[in-house]
Amino acid sequence: MRIELQTKTMEFLKPAKTSRGEYMEKSSLLLSLHTGKYCGLGEAAPLPNLSIDGKVDLAAVLSPLLEEEITENQLIDLLAAWEPGTHDSLPSLRFALHSAWKNLQRQASRITEETGASVYWNENSFTQGKKGMVINGLVWMNGAEAMYQEAMSKIEAGFKCIKIKVGALDFDEECRLIERIRKDYSAFSLELRVDANGGFSDDLALEQIKELSRFQIHSIEQPVNVLCNELDKICRYSAIDVALDESLIGLHPNKDGVMGKSGRHLLTWAKPKYIILKPTLLGGTDMADLWIEEAAKQQIGWWSTSALEGNVGLAIIAQWVSQYQPTLPQGLGTGLLFKENYPSNTRVKGETLWFNSANT
């Protein structure tokens, strides 16, 4: 096998604002793994202020490998070395390499004309283009009026589950925004999720969550920072079901790592209602599979979310999660955030994401 790569900087159509800052552009590394006439693709697109390897020069890491043939054993060793919880953890690069390897293991019979490579390995009604997957409509942080208008446009487009980023504006202003939406759309017609990205303070979180619960919120993602020592208390007494997201980053699902704990330890201690699975941040779809196994043992629900990957990463995550036939709306992107992107293997119709099987 041989590894090739190309780098791409993707500029956002408009700034992507979160409680951690604002993104104007996103770097992506397209990794291709070649063997004979086949080629599998993977995408490494870390988030600078969130990913374990967000500030690592991934192209430099891969550079020594580009001049030589890679055996399967060497590839397996790399995947082990880059696992979450290790000293050399490179989760987004591991996601890309593991994805490309799976492409080769289950190479599709057709090759995409645009890339000459496959991003397809599951055979089901979604990847055959026969069934769409329900996703949430995401409302990015902005001024309150702009967020309201974006929510309305998502609802008019057909989304019945809306996720709103909170934690950056004045809290009362955020409450008024959600109340304004709820006046026209009850919980029977519209599911509302909120994502604080760790933006609530430890001492006020439960009080703020109680205030938000008036609006019949489905769940709140990562209300407090990952270093909060009372996360278990917040999960236990929260008036809204808590979904942990950033807390999973850097942990191996079932192995104690360099931080001295595992995902199993986190779930047993905090006992959230849900976990959010972002394969780019967790080190691959196989790591996400292990998180699902651990969550199932503790009767914890989950859904998947993309993390501002380009179209290659988005397609990989979408076809991976489709094998579970999820019933909850997934937090997958639409592929429409960037001015220039990779050729798309997905499209959005109403509140559903569809796989373009003709392109695989």
Description of the molecule:
This protein is an alpha/beta fold. The protein folds into 2 domains: 2-105, Enolase-like, domain 1 (2-Layer Sandwich), CATH 3.30.390.10; 133-359, Enolase-like C-terminal domain (TIM Barrel, Alpha-Beta Barrel). Helix content is 31%, strand content 21%. It is built from 11 helices and 13 strands. It has helices at residues 58-62, 72-81, 91-105, 144-157, 171-184, 205-212, 231-237, 263-270, 279-282, 285-297, 311-322, and strands at residues 2-18, 21-35, 38-44, 133-134, 137-139, 161-165, 191-195, 219-221, 242-244, 274-277, 301-304, 346-349, 352-355. The strands form 3 sheets. It has a 7-stranded parallel beta sheet. A 3-stranded antiparallel beta sheet has the order 1-2-3. α4 (144-157) packs parallel to α5 (171-184). The longest helix has 15 residues, at 91-105. 46% of the residues are buried.
